[in-house]
Amino acid sequence: MSSFRPGSRPSTPAIGLACFGLVTAFATPEARAQEEAAPAATRLPELSVVGAAPSPYRADSAPLPRSPFTAAEAPQSVTVVPRVVMQERQATTVRDALRNVTGISLAAGEGGFSGDNLTLRGFPARGDFFIDGIRDLGQYTRDSFFLDSVEVLKGPSSVIFGRGSTGGVVNQTTRLPLPVTQGEMWLSAYTPMGLRMTTDVNVRAGAVAARLAAMGTRIDAADRDNVFNKRWGVYPSITLGMGTPTTLTLSWLHQEERTMPDFGLPYYLGRPLRVATNTFYGLRQTDREHTQTDVFTARLEHRFGEDLQLRNTFRWANWAREISATAPRLVAGTVAQGITPASLVNRQPQVRNGFDAMLANQTEAQLRFVTLGLRHELLAGVEVGRESSESTRFAQTGRPAASLLFPNFDDAGLIATTLASDVRTVANTVALYAVDRIFLGELFELILGGRWDSFEAEQTNRTARQALARTDRAFTWRGALVFKPLPGLRAYLAAGTSFNPSAEALTLAAGNANLAPETATTYELGASYEVLAGLRLAGSVFRIEKRNARTSDPANAALQVLDGIVRVDGFELQAVGRLAPRWNLLAGYTYLGSEIVRSNNPAEVGKEFANVAPHTVSLWTTCDLPFGFQAGGGLSYIDRRFGNTANTTRVPGHVRLDAALAWTPEEGPLKGLRLQINALNLGDARTYETVYSGHVVPGVGRTFVFSMAARF
Question: CB of 283 within 8 A of CB of 321?
Answer without folding.
Answer: no
